[in-house]
Design a protein that fits this description.
With about 210 residues, the chain is α+β, with helices and mostly antiparallel strands. The chain folds into two domains: about 1-80 and about 195-200, 3-Layer(aba) Sandwich (Glutaredoxin); about 90-190, Glutathione S-transferase Yfyf (Class Pi), Chain A, domain 2, CATH 1.20.1050.10. Helix content is about 50%, strand content about 10%. A four-stranded mixed sheet has the order 2-1-3-4, covered by helices on one side. A hairpin with a 2-residue loop joins β3 (about 55-60) and β4. The longest helix is centred in the middle third of the chain and has 18 residues, at about 125-145. The protein binds glutathione (GSH). Glutathione (GSH) binds next to loops.
């Protein structure tokens, strides 16, 4: 049985969503962020020393990192769904987007978030961070021109990974410049499995706005 160790308002929401998409049997153990520091509680370190979410356990396996978890779930429990054939060009594209979602794409967003908490708002770093945000979000926006999904215009694990970028981008960048990304986010939110995941968890701050 798969256990998703879920932190409220976090990247683990997308893992619960993916479990719903593939219809695998799973349970959720929820952890609450510290209301002052916003950090995960120490109990999560008992599951994995990094104490971050998402983390899943499945028998002898304990797996961290959203991209690795998405790939694991699809390979072992996806029944061929949402995972392009390994010998296809789409598979290479899928791997690229899966990695990009938690490396190149997320870095400027995290830098913006962290520096905004500095007393001077990280003034010295602002121009560089804003340039990087424009570069990466611009690339993502352009990649969605005329398509619904990132790989072969077919829903895949890469879309699950990138949904978090689409969900947090509005906090740090003008959504007027991201119509394709916001439409993508809305398409994710409209999926029945996404809504089932929302219904199974506490309020998710980056989820659909009613
Ligand atoms: N790249 C990792 C990021 C994991 C991560 O930083 N998760 C955040 C939640 S979105 C977390 O656990 N924050 C609480 C903390 O750092 O204490 C992934 O995608 O799994």
């Amino acid at each position: 049985m798969i256990t998703v160790h879920h932190l409220n308002h976090s990247r683990s929401q997308r893992i619960i969503w993916l479990c719903e998409e593939i219809g695998v049997d799973f349970e959720i153990v929820t952890y609450q962020r510290d209301p002052v520091t916003n950090l995960a509680p120490p109990e999560l370190e008992q599951i994995h020393p990094l104490g971050k979410s998402p983390v899943i356990t499945d028998g002898d396996h304990t797996i961290i990192e959203s991209g690795a978890i998405i790939d694991y779930l699809l390979r072992h429990y996806g029944g061929g769904q949402f995972l392009p054939a390994t010998d296809s060009n789409d598979h290479e594209q899928y791997l690229q987007w899966l990695h990009y979602g938690e490396s190149g794409a997320v870095l400027p967003l995290m830098l913006k978030l962290y520096t905004s908490k500095l007393p001077d708002g990280g003034e010295a770093l602002k121009p560089r961070i804003n340039d990087e945000l424009t570069r990466h979000l611009g690339y993502i926006e352009k990649s969605l021109e005329g398509v619904n999904w990132f790989v072969g215009n077919t829903f895949s694990g890469a879309d699950v990974q990138l949904s978090f970028i689409a969900e947090i981008a509005p906090m740090m960048y003008s959504v007027d410049k991201l119509p394709n990304l916001m439409a993508f986010r809305n398409r994710c939110h409209e999926r029945p499995a996404y809504q089932r995941a929302i219904a199974k968890t506490d309020f998710y701050a980056y989820g659909p706005k009613n």
